[in-house]
C-alpha cells in the first residue's frame, strides 16, 4: 500500500528503464508513466458547443483507477475552446435578448444572429471552467489535479523547458495528475514546415504534437491518443476496403492513405501518426484508439494498459510471421481451395497425415518430452493436466486409426444433396452441405487435439485457426508442421494455421469478420471465458462435464462396479468422466452398496457426500460443497435418490447436459430415463466414457457440444457443415406466379442422388 493525504491505494509492481519502447501489447501493463491525450472530438459534444460530460467522467474514472494503482498519469486535453464557445454564446444571447427587449418593448424575441466567435477568445473564456470541471471530477476519487498551460516557446527556451520539466516531476511526486493544454488564448499560428525536425525538435502546433513532445521530455512509457476513429486504417475509414491496422511499424506510412480531419481540432490522422512516430523514436510506446464509441469508451484506457487489442499499437519490432488477421484470411482462402478439391483429394491429405503421425513418432515424442519437462520444472500444471499433455506411442497409433476413419467417412460430406424440390417446370431447388468457413479452435494441454481437429477441418473443407496452450508449444509446433506437410500434397498448406503470436484469447474472440465459429477445448473456466468474450461469433462446446451415473434397484451386481470403475477411474481428467453417483435409497446398507464403496476405496477415489447421503450416515465423508462440481480427478460425489424420477430431476437441476447413465435391468425404467433425461448423451448400462467421437465411429471430434442449436454431443464432420440453397431456372421471374400469371408452383419432392456406397 502507498498513501497520500492519508488515503491508501493499491499499487502494482512497475519498473522499467526508459529509452526503448515496448515491443508487444502484452508489455503495456508494465507502463509506469502514462500520458493520455484527449482529442477535441473526444472531449466536445457533437454540436461542438460544450463538453461531453458523460464521456469525460468515464475517462477521469479510468485515469483515477490507474493513478491509484501507483502509475503516474498525465492528461493532455482539448476542450477549452468548445467550453468557452458555449459560455460566450450564452452571454451573447443573453445580452442581445436584453437589448432587443429594451428597443422593441416586446416580450417575444425574434431570431438573433450569433457572430462568429474568435477561437482565442473562446479559449480564454473556457480554460478556467474546463479546469474546474476536471478538479470536481478527480475530487470524487480523492485525487488532486493541477493545470499547466504551455506554448511552443516553452519548449524552445531552455530555461522554460527545465522549469516545466521540474514542475511536472514535482506534481507527479506528490501524486497529482497534471492537466496540460496549449495556451490557445495566446498561442501564435504554427509556422509552415516547422514540424518534425529530428529527434530533439517537434513543433507544438496542436495537442497531438504537444502530447508527443511532452511524452518524450518526461521519459513517458506510454502515450495513449484518443480520437473519434478506432485507430489507423490502411485506407480512409468508411471506405469499403478499409481495415484497422492492429500494429503500425515505422516505414509503413508509405502504404497508408490518410482521410480528412475530424470534425473539430487542429490535427488529422496524419498529424497523429507523425507525432506518434516521433514519440516512438524517442522511446515512448503509442496507441491511437477511439475515445468516443459508447460501447468501449468506458474502459478503452484500462483495456489498452492491460494489453488488449484496442486501436493501433505503434511498435519498432516487426514480427517475422504474419499477423493473426492475415492468418485468418489465409485460412479462409486456403479453406475455399480445400473445399473445391475432390473428396478423394481431401481424404488423401488425411491419410498422409495419419501416416506421418506414426512415421515421425520419435520426433513427436521428443518434442512432447520437452513440454512435459518444462511443465514439471515450472510446476505450472496439475497432475490431470499433465496427463492430458502427455503423448505416447499408443496415443499416436489411436490418433492415426481415428484419422483414417475420418478419411474413409468423408468421401461425400461436402456438397452432399440433402433435399431436392421441383418448384415449377424447369425450376429446381437443391439444399447441399457446405463448410462453415473459418474455425477457431482454442485448446489447453491437449496436443493430440491438433491433428484430430485438423483432420475434421480438412474433411469438411473448413479453414482452421489453432490456438494452443504455451505448455504444449513444442508438441504443437511439430504436429502443425506435419499437418502442413500433408496439406502441401494438394497445394493447400495455408488452410490450417497455428497462432504463435502473443494474441490473447479475448482478442481472438473479437475477430467476428474473420472467424465463423469458435470451438474451445479445455477447462470449464476457459470455455466460460470464451463464451463471455465472443461477441458476434457463435461458440460450440460445453463449459462443464458434470456426468451422472444412476444405480437403480434393478441393477445387475456384475455390471455396476465395472461401469462405475470405468466411468470414474479409467481417465478421471476427461470431461466425460463420472462426477456424481446417484444411488437408489433402497440400495443403502446392501452388499451391492458395500461393493461400490470398497471398489472406490481400492481405486483411491475420494468420496464427497451429498446432503441426503450424509443424513443417513453417522460418520460421513466430507459433505460436498456443491452438487455442481466437476472434479477432474479421483474424486466424486455420492447422493441418494428415491427413484428414477428423482434421479432425472437431480440431473436436470445439477447436471451440465453432457452425459448421463442409468444402470438397471428393468427395460421400462431404462426407457423412461433415456427419454426424459435432457442431455446430449444418455446411456443405458454403458460407461460415460463412451461419449467420444472416436468411440461413436466419427473418427475424432472437435469437442462435445451441450448447446441445442446446430450440433449436439460429440461433434464430427457433420457438425462442421452448414447448408446452402442452389436454384436452377430458365428465365423464371416471380411475377409469372402471380394470380394472373402463366405459371403455378409445384413444390414436388425429387429423389436424392445415390450416395457413395464406399
Describe this structure in words.
The chain is an alpha/beta fold and 758 residues long. The protein has three domains: 25-94 and 118-186 and 202-314, 3-Layer(aba) Sandwich (Carbamate kinase), CATH 3.40.1160.10; 324-533, 3-Layer(aba) Sandwich (Aldehyde Dehydrogenase, Chain A, domain 1); 548-701, Aldehyde Dehydrogenase, Chain A, domain 2 (3-Layer(aba) Sandwich), CATH 3.40.309. Strands 5-6-4-3-7-9-10-8 form an eight-stranded mixed beta sheet, sandwiched between helices. Strands 19-20-18-17-21-22 form a six-stranded parallel beta sheet. A four-stranded antiparallel beta sheet has the order 25-12-11-26, with no helix packed on it. The longest helix is centred in the first third of the chain and has 25 residues, at 80-104. The protein is globular and about 100 Å long. Mean pLDDT is 86; it is low at 1-13, 106-110, 189-203 and 262-267.
Amino acid at each position: 500500500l502507498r498513501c497520500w493525504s492519508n488515503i491508501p491505494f493499491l499499487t502494482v509492481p512497475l519498473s522499467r528503464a526508459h529509452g526503448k519502447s515496448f515491443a508487444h501489447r502484452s508489455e503495456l501493463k508494465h507502463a509506469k508513466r502514462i500520458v493520455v491525450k484527449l482529442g477535441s472530438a473526444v472531449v466536445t459534444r457533437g454540436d461542438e458547443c460544450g463538453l461531453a460530460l458523460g464521456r469525460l467522467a468515464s475517462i477521469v474514472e479510468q485515469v483515477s483507477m490507474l493513478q491509484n494503482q501507483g502509475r503516474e498519469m498525465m492528461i493532455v486535453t482539448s476542450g477549452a475552446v468548445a467550453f468557452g464557445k458555449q459560455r460566450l454564446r450564452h452571454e451573447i444571447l443573453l445580452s442581445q435578448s436584453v437589448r432587443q427587449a429594451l428597443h422593441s418593448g416586446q416580450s417575444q424575441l425574434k431570431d438573433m444572429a450569433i457572430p462568429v466567435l474568435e477561437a482565442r477568445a473562446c479559449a480564454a473564456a473556457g480554460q478556467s471552467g474546463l479546469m474546474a470541471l476536471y478538479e470536481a471530477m478527480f475530487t470524487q476519487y480523492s485525487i488532486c489535479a493541477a493545470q499547466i498551460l504551455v506554448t511552443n516557446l516553452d519548449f524552445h527556451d531552455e530555461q522554460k523547458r527545465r522549469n516545466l520539466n521540474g514542475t511536472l516531476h514535482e506534481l507527479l511526486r506528490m501524486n497529482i495528475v497534471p492537466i496540460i493544454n496549449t495556451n490557445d488564448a495566446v498561442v501564435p499560428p504554427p509556422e509552415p514546415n516547422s514540424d518534425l525536425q529530428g529527434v530533439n525538435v517537434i513543433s507544438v502546433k496542436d495537442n497531438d504534437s504537444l502530447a508527443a513532445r511532452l511524452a518524450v521530455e518526461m521519459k513517458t512509457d506510454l502515450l495513449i491518443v484518443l480520437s473519434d476513429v478506432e485507430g489507423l486504417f490502411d485506407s480512409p475509414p468508411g471506405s469499403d476496403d478499409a481495415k484497422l491496422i492492429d500494429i503500425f511499424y515505422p516505414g509503413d506510412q508509405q502504404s497508408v492513405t490518410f482521410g480528412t480531419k475530424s470534425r473539430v481540432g487542429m490535427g488529422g490522422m496524419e498529424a497523429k501518426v507523425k507525432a506518434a512516430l516521433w514519440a516512438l523514436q524517442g522511446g515512448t510506446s503509442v496507441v491511437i484508439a477511439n475515445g468516443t464509441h459508447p460501447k468501449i469508451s468506458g474502459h478503452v484506457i484500462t483495456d489498452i494498459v492491460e494489453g488488449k487489442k484496442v486501436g493501433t499499437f505503434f511498435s519498432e519490432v516487426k514480427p517475422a510471421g504474419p499477423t493473426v488477421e492475415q492468418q485468418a484470411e489465409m485460412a479462409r482462402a486456403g479453406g475455399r481451395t480445400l473445399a473445391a478439391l475432390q473428396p478423394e483429394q481431401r481424404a488423401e491429405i488425411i491419410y498422409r497425415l495419419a501416416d506421418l503421425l506414426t512415421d515421425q513418432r520419435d520426433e513427436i515424442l521428443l518434442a512432447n518430452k520437452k513440454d512435459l519437462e518444462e511443465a514439471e520444472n515450472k510446476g505450472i500444471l496439475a497432475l490431470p493436466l499433465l496427463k492430458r499433455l502427455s503423448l505416447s506411442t499408443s496415443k499416436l497409433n489411436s490418433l492415426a486409426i481415428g484419422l483414417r476413419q475420418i478419411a474413409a467417412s468423408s468421401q461425400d460430406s461436402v456438397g452432399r444433396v440433402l433435399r431436392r424440390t421441383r418448384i415449377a417446370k424447369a425450376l429446381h431447388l437443391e439444399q447441399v452441405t457446405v463448410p462453415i468457413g473459418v474455425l477457431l479452435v482454442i485448446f489447453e494441454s491437449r496436443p493430440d487435439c491438433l491433428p484430430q481437429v485438423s483432420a475434421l477441418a480438412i474433411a469438411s473443407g473448413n479453414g482452421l485457426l489453432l490456438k494452443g496452450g504455451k505448455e504444449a508449444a513444442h508438441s504443437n509446433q511439430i504436429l502443425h508442421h506435419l499437418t502442413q506437410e500433408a496439406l502441401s500434397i494438394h497445394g493447400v498448406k495455408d488452410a490450417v494455421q497455428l497462432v504463435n503470436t502473443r494474441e490473447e484469447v479475448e482478442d481472438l474472440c473479437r475477430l467476428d469478420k474473420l472467424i465463423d465459429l469458435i470451438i474451445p477445448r479445455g477447462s470449464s473456466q476457459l470455455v466460460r471465458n470464451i463464451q463471455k468474450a465472443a461477441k458476434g461469433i457463435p461458440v460450440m462446446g460445453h463449459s462443464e462435464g458434470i456426468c451422472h451415473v444412476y444405480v437403480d434397484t434393478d441393477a445387475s451386481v456384475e455390471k455396476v462396479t465395472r461401469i462405475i470403475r470405468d466411468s470414474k477411474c479409467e481417465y478421471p481428467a476427461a470431461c466425460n468422466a463420472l462426477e456424481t453417483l446417484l444411488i437408489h435409497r433402497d440400495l443403502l446398507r446392501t452388499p451391492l452398496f458395500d461393493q461400490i464403496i470398497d471398489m472406490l476405496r481400492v481405486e483411491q477415489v475420494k468420496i464427497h457426500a451429498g446432503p441426503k447421503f450424509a443424513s443417513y450416515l453417522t460418520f460421513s465423508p466430507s459433505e460436498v460443497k456443491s452438487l455442481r462440481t466437476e472434479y477432474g480427478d479421483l474424486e466424486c460425489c455420492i447422493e441418494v435418490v428415491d427413484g428414477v424420477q428423482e434421479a432425472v430431476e437431480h440431473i436436470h437441476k445439477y447436471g451440465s447436459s453432457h452425459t448421463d447413465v442409468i444402470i438397471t435391468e428393468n427395460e421400462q425404467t431404462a426407457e423412461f430415463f433415456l427419454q426424459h433425461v435432457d442431455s446430449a448423451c444418455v446411456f443405458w448400462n454403458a460407461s460415460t466414457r463412451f461419449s467420444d467421437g472416436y468411440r461413436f465411429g466419427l473418427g475424432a471430434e472437435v469437442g462435445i457440444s451441450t448447446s441445442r442449436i446446430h450440433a449436439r454431443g460429440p461433434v464430427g464432420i457433420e457438425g462442421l457443415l452448414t447448408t446452402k440453397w442452389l436454384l436452377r431456372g430458365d428465365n423464371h421471374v416471380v411475377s409469372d406466379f402471380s394470380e394472373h400469371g402463366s405459371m403455378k408452383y409445384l413444390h414436388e419432392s425429387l429423389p436424392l442422388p445415390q450416395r457413395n456406397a464406399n
